[in-house]
C-alpha cells in the first residue's frame, strides 16, 4: 500500500513493477510537486497473491487499507460518508504496461443516499450529483455485483431500466432526465441489483471500496484483457495494481474541464504541445467520442491560467521523465489536477525525430536515444505511405474490401493483373501494377519486380510472396482469405464485389488493408534521399535525423550487418541502407531471367552427363555476368554466394500446355518430358532432393557455378576492384557432403586462378539449416571456414513444421499460447536457438576463428538479432529494407546487455 | 614380417588385425601342428604405411623379407631360382575380413626359364610345367606389369596372343596345346610384355616377389574391392596383409587334389563333414567351375588315408577354433596340406543350429552362442522360403524378371492385382494374391493384408509398403525400378515382357528377386510351431533350438521388447514371438475398416464442432471395440496407444470420380467437398497439420479416442483382465501441446472412471520425433510419464530428409560414402542418436523414473538396438516378426559391453 499526496509519496517512477505504470507515475508526479489528487496504490503483488490464493485478498490488507484511508481523510479533510464533507474516490487499474480500456474503473465511489445530497449542494447542480450517483450505482452494479446481460443477445439490464423510464417520462436523451427522474431511476437500479445479485447496493463507502478493488483485480483476467496481453506480449503473471485516488471533477461548470495531452506530436514527433480537451466534462467523455474535443491551443484563450499551468507541467514532465509524455488532466474550478502520465506511444517517424531531437536538447544521451526507437518501427520511415485523408475518404466510401496479413510494409495502388507476364507488359507501358495471386512461386518473380504491390489470397508472413516482397522492399498483403482469385475469368471476387483485371486496387502492407480503387501514396523522405537520390539530404530533416541515429547505432553495435540480395540493384539499395556485404545471394533467382530458364530446363531434363554439361555451358556466361554485376556493385565487400538450392521441379512447368510448349522447344517427346517432370515430383520437396544433394548427384552444376563465380571475380579484380566471394554450400547434414562439394570448388578455383593469373581470396562455408548439421558442427567446421545459419529451414526441420502448411494450425497455436511468437518471424530460442548454440560451440571448438552469420528471414527481426548478438555471431544478413532495422537492433542488443 | 612353418609361428589367430584372417590362421594352424606349407606374412600395417607413403614400401622391409626368404629356403631345402630344387611360392592377399576373389593372387612365383625345366622334370609332366609357367607369365604381366586391355571394348592382349597361336596351330582348347606350343606362347607373351610395359618379364624370383607384393597391396584399392568393402561395411583403412607361402601342387596326378570343406553344413547347420574336391587340380579349378567338384564323402573311397587325415583335421579345427570352419586343402602326392581356414559363413538357420548344438557339445558357452547368430539372420528362420530347386529351375528358364529392394523377408507367389479392392476380392475367392503398386498408401492396407506379397516399383526399404510388410511379416519387394506399372491397362511391363492382371508373379523378399510365374514356397518350421500352431514343438528341432537361443537371450538382455501392432491378431503373433507389450498402436490404421472410413470422412469435412462431434460419435464404438480386442489379446501387458497422427487428407479420396461418390454419400455438393480436399492439400505433408496439431485444433478427436480407450479398458477390466494403457501424443514440439492434450485425456479418464467405477492405471507420454522435442525434453517431461522415440520422423526432420523422396539421392550418398548406413534402416548415431541422448538427459533430469522406448522402424534393427541399450532406454518396440531379432540383439548389446 503506497500512499501519495501533498508533495510526498511512498513510491516513485522506478517502482512500475510493483505499482504499475499509473501508480508509479502518480507517486513520481506528487514527489516533483505536480498537482496530483492524493490517494494510494495497492501493489501488483497483492494482485498476483490474490490469484495465487484462489482469488482471496491477503489477510493483512484490510488493516493497511484502513490506515491509508485514515491518512487520506486527514490530508483532504474529507471523510467517507461524511454528511458535511464526504470523501469520493476513483478506483482504477494500473498495470506495468498500459492496457488502455481493457480493465475496469470505478468513479465517484463514496456516493450514497446521504453523500449525494452533499454533492448536490456543494456542486450547485443537483442534476450533476444525482447523475453521478446514478452512474456509480450502474457501474458498481455491473462491474462489482455482476448485474449483467445473460447471453450475447440479451439486453443490458440497466439500459433496459433506463430506457423504460425514459419512455415513461417521455424523454429521448439521458440529459433530459430531471433530478427527480434520476432519483426514481436510482431506486429502480437498486431493486434490479437486489433482484439480480441477491444483495443490496452497499451504502457503506468502505464496503464499496473493497468491492471495487476486487473487481479491478478480477478484470485483469477478463477476456478483453487476456486478448490484449496476448497481442502485445504482456505476461499474464504481471498482474495489475489498483489506484484509489481522491475524485476531482471536470464537470462542475465552465471553469472545469478535462483533457489528454502529449508533450510532443506523437505522429510526427514535432516539438509542439499537442492534445485535446473538453470544458465541463469528465475524462470518459473525451474518450467516448460523444462530444468532439477541441485542440489544446484553444484552451489558451478559454482558460489562459490553466493553459499556462499545463505548459509549465509539460516542461516539468519532459525535463523530469526525459521522454515524450502522454498525460491526462482535469481542471476543477480553474485548478489543474494531474491524473496520469506515461511515456507516449508514437509512430516510427516520430520515434526517430523525438529521440534525435532530445539528444540535441541534451535531455538524453545517444545510447538512450538508440533504445527509444523500436527497431522494427524504422520500417515505417522507409515505407511509402497512403495519404491519410485519401485513405479515410476511401474507408468512408466503403472501399475497404478486406484485410490480410501485413507482409511488406508501405502502401501501393495499381492495376490488377494475375500473372508475371501481364505484370511485366503492363509495367512496360508505364502503368502501376498490382500483382494478385492465390500464392506466388519463383516463376512470378519478374512480375513481382514489375509490380507496385503484391496481394495474395493464401500464405503467411513468411510465404514466398512476403519473403520476396520484404527483400525487395515491395508492398505486400498476403493471405487475404476473403479474396477469391479466378485466374480463368481474370477476376477477383471479394464480399460480393468483382474486381476485373486492369481495375485498380490499393493495399496497405503496414496494416494489411485492401482497398477498391486508388488511394494516393508518397515515398518516404528517407528513401527519396538514400535510394531514389532525388532529394538532397540537406533538405530532409527526416533523413538527417535517421542518419544520425544510424551513425550512433554503428558506433555501438558489434554485429556486422549484411544483406540478402541477388541482383546488383538490390545490392546497391542495401549498401545505401548501410549493408556491409552480402550474406546470401541465391543463385537460383538468377535462373529465371529471359532465355536462361530454357538452358536451366535443358540441364534438368538432360539424360547424360554430357547433355547436362552442354546445357550448363550455356548457363555459364549468364551466371558469370550476374556475378560480375554483383561484385562490381559490392566494391570489395564480401559476397556470400549460395550454390543451387531449390528442388529442380521448381524450374519446370507443371501444366500440360506449358509442358507441351517446353517439349517443342527442347525437341523432346511430350511423354518423355512429362515423365521426367512426374519423376521429379516429391512428396515433401522441403525434405527432398535439393541443396547440396543436387551438387552431390550432379557435381557439374556446382562446378559450373564455381567457375562462373571465379571467372567473374578474376575479371572484376583485373579492373581493380577487390572481390571477396564466400561460397556457401546449402543443406549440408553430413561432413562429407561439404568435403566433396569443397573439392569441386577448390579444383575449379585452382583452374581459373591458373588460367587468369588472378589470385582470388575466397572462403568456403556452409549453411547450418538442418538439425544434424548443428549437432555435428565440429566435424563440419573442419572443412567450413564459415557457418551461416539458415534459420528458415532450421526452423522448419527443427520444429517439424512446414512454413507453407502451418497456416492451418499456427493461428490456433498462438491463441492457445503454445507459441509465444511466430517461429518463422522470430527465432524460437529454446529449440532453434539451442541448435544454433550447439553449432557455435561445436564449430568454434574445431575452428576458433570460424565466421558465423545468419541469413534466414530472422536476420532482420530485432528479437532474433538480440539473440544473435548474445550467441556470439559475427554478422546478421537480412533483406535490403531491413538493414537499418538490423543496424539499430544490433546496437540495442549491446545496450541491453550493458544495462542488464 | 611374421614367419610360420614346421610347427612354429611368429603369429597366432589373435593377430587378425595385423596379419589378416588368412595369415593369422595359417600361423595358428602351424602352431597346433596342422600341415601348413611354410611361409611368411607381411602385415596390414605395411599396407597402410604403403598408402600413407604415396604407395612406397617402407625402407626396412627389403632386409626383413630377405631374412624371411633365407629362413624359408633353409626350412624347405629349396632355393629361389635353384636349378636343382627351386623354391616356388604363392603371393596372396589376406584382409582382416575375408573378401573372396576381390584382390589379386599370384601363384607359381619363382618360375623362370630355368626353374620351369626342373618343374617339368620333377613333376614328370612337361605340359603341366610349361602351362604353369605360361599362366604365371600371363598373370604376372597382367597384374604386376599392367599389360591390360585399353578401354572397355578392347581385347584382352594375352587372350589375343593365345587365340592367335591356337588359330595358327589349329587347336580349339587350351589343353590341346603341346609343351612346344606353350613355349612359343611364353616367348610371345614376353614380347608382348616388353612392348606394353617397356620392360622385360623379370627372371629373378626376388624381383618377381617384390612386384607381386606391391601388386597385392595395390589391389586393395581396385574398384571391385572398394565396392565389396562398401557393401559389407569393411573400413577402407584396414588394408590387407600379404602371405608368401611355399607352393604345393594338387595337380601332380591322381594322388594329388584340392578341395574346400566345412566342419558342418553351412546351409542347414547339421554336424556333417561337408565339402567338395577335385583330383589332380589346383585350388582355382574348384572355384572356376569348369570341372564339377565331387562331394567330400567320395574322397573316403578314393583316398581313404587323406580323407581320414582331413576328418582328424576337422575335429582339431573345431576343437581349437570352437566355431564352424571353412577351410581349403591341397593333397600333393597323398600328403594333405592346409592352405587356409576361417570361420564359415552360414545361413540364419544354420547359425542357430550350430550355436545351440555347440553349447550342447560344450564347445562354447551360452553367451558365445548368443554372439554367434547375427540377430538379423533370425528373420530367415521365420520367413517362408522358396523351394530351392524350383527357384533354380525358374532362373534357368529365364523367369527371373528383375530385382528390387528386399523389404519383407520370405518368398511368395500370387496372382497380380493392382489395387486393394481387387486384392480383397481375389483373396476372398481363396486365390493367392500379389499386390503390385507403383507405391502403397494407407488406403491399400486391406489389400496388403489380403495379399501374399507386395511388390512396388517405387519406394525404399522404409517406404509405406516395406514398413507395413515388415509389421505384418509380409513378403515384400519394393522399389523394383524396372517395373512399369500401368494401372489403366492393368498390366505391368518389365524388360519387354507384359504381365497381366491375374497372372502369377513370385517374389523373394529376402534377396529382392521377382520371378515370372509361380515358384513354390513353404512356411518356416518355427512359424509353424509358434504362430500357426500346426506343428508340435517337440517335433521341430529348429523350433527347440530357436527357443533355447531366445531363452538365453532373455536371461541376458536388459532392454524390454515390445511390438508395433494395431490389431489383435498382430498382437497375438508378437506375443508368440516374445513381445512384452505394445510399444506403438497406430490408431489411424483402425480407421480404414468397413464403414468406419465413412464416419472418418464425415468428421473431416465437418464444418462445425457439432457436426464433427456427431461424426466422432459414430466412430467411438468402432474404436472402443478395437481397443477391447487389443486389450484382451495383450492380457495385462502394457499397450501404448498413439492418438491420431496422419494428416487428414490421407483419409480422403483424391480422384474426381471417388470424390463424386463420397459427395453423394455425405450428401454434400461436389464443389464443396472438392474445395475442402483442395484446402487440405499440403506442400509438405510430413511437416504439416498432423500429429498432436490435429488434437490441438480439434480436441474433440483426442477426446473421442481417449474415451474409446478408457471405456474399453473399463469393460475389459470388469471381465478380470488387467489393462495398462499408455497414451502417447505424437509430434509434440512444445511443452504446452502435451499439457493441453493431457488435460483432455485426464478429463476424459476421470469421467469414464467415475461412470464405470473402474480405476484404470494409465500413463500419458509423448513421442519424441521432432528435434525441438529432444531439445526441450526437460520441460516436456514435466507432463510426460514416458518418451517414445519416433525415430522415423526424428530421422526425417533431424536430417531434413524425406524418406519417400530420398530414393533420388541416397543411393549416390551410399556410393560416395556420405552415409555409412541407410539412416532410415539404422539410427544415424552422430545426428539422430545425439538428439536421443540429449532428450534422455533432459527428460531424466526432470523425471528420474521416466520410461523410455523407441517405436520407429529402427526398434527392430540390431545396430540401433545396441545404441538403445547403450543410451539407457527401457525398451524397444518393433514389428512382430522382428521381436525375436530384437530379443537377441538386446542380449548381444549387453554381451558386447561385457566384452569391451
| End-to-end C-alpha gap of chain A | 28 Å
Low-confidence stretches of chain A are: none
Total helices of chain A: the number is 36
What is the helical fraction of chain A, as a range of percent? Answer: 40-55%
Output the radius of gyration of chain A: 33 Å
Strand content of chain A is: 15-25%
Strand order of the largest sheet of chain A: 13-23-22-15-16-17-18-14
Bulk shape of chain A? elongated
The average pLDDT value of chain A, as a whole number, equals 91
Number of strand segments of chain A: 32
Oligomer kind = homodimer
Q: Characterize the biggest β-sheet of chain A.
A: 8 strands, mixed
Please identify the structural class of chain A as seen in this structure: alpha/beta
User: Largest interface, per-chain counts?
Assistant: A-B, 49 and 49 residues
Descriptive overview:
- With 900 residues, the first copy, chain A, is an alpha/beta fold.
- In chain A, the strands form six sheets. In chain A, strands 13-23-22-15-16-17-18-14 form an eight-stranded mixed β-sheet. In chain A, strands 25-26-27-28-29-30-31-32 form an eight-stranded parallel beta barrel, surrounded by seven helices.
- In chain A, strand 16, helix 18 (445-450) and strand 17 form a beta-alpha-beta unit.
- In chain A, helix 5 packs parallel to helix 7 and helix 28 crosses helix 29.
- The radius of gyration of chain A is 33 Å and the shape is elongated.
- Chain A starts with a strand and ends with a helix.
- In chain A, 53% of the residues are buried.
- The model of chain A has no long low-confidence stretch (mean pLDDT 91).
- Chains A and B meet through helix 27, helix 29, helix 30, helix 32 and helix 34 of A and helix 27, helix 29, helix 30, helix 32 and helix 34 of B.
